Amino acid sequence: MIQKACPPMAAAPLFDGCHDTIVWSCLDGTMGEIFVDTEASPGTYSGTFPVPEAHPVSAMAVLGDFVFLAGAPSLPLLEKIHGEKHPFQILIPQSDSWNLPIVRIFKESAKPITRYATKKDPKAFSAEKLLAIRESLPAGCTLHPIDENIYHQCQAEGWSRDLVSQFPDWDTYRRLGLGIVVLADGKPVSGASSYSRYKDGIEIEIDTTESFRRKGLASACGAALILECLNQGLYPSWDAHTLQSLSLAQKLGYQPAGPYPAYEIT
């Protein structure tokens, strides 16, 4: 039986050992949702789960494009995702036992990928280095915090939408979000912002419009956002979708924690 976890922390044992802040956002109730299956589907896993009636044995944490899968593989949970027909999602299983059920439900729509985690160590950052990177903007470019006007500008452009997309309105972003953009001729051309928020920090999203890439803008606004997070006592978490993103993270002071498998669903 599929139901929404209420309170979300009821699903915490299934995500034990998970270090992804998007899951933490869902668990602490800041953003996102957690759905649980109280009876894992027959034939999708081996072994017995002697749990009390109505105790969740499978869970998925959903926030934006991300779906984290934990516990016993559950076809009903996967079918719920499939039935909602999102144009794009990233499925991250907590164990290999989810792989066959994912392929069974999504077939050729499921593309295996590798993502790259970084260590969550606030002491790894060098303020001096980050300040130097922040000040390395080319002539004609300036840094600016995401205010109400820039929030709406980011919403209106495809390249920048994910900088604010998980915050449905300016008031929500003002309360929970945090971001810096690079302005050129008064318009945002690059930005670093909170993709999501949890109690003690944010998950960073960085984007640059195509014509302004490879100019150091992502590095500068990323450094500025990390410094602001540390100043506010928030941890700026970084999870890399590509090796290029991991390289930028390392330039800013993050240390690799290792690759992990995921699936892109289109």
TrEMBL record:
Gene3D superfamilies in the record: 3.40.630.30, GNAT acetyltransferase-like
Domain N-acetyltransferase as annotated: residue spans: 131-266
GO function term, MF aspect, one: acyltransferase activity, transferring groups other than amino-acyl groups
SUPFAM superfamilies referenced in this protein's UniProt entry, alphabetically: Acyl-CoA N-acyltransferases (Nat)
UniProt cross-references to PANTHER family, sorted A to Z: FR47-LIKE DOMAIN-CONTAINING PROTEIN-RELATED, PTHR31143
Protein name: GNAT family N-acetyltransferase
Gene source species: Candidatus Caccovicinus merdipullorum
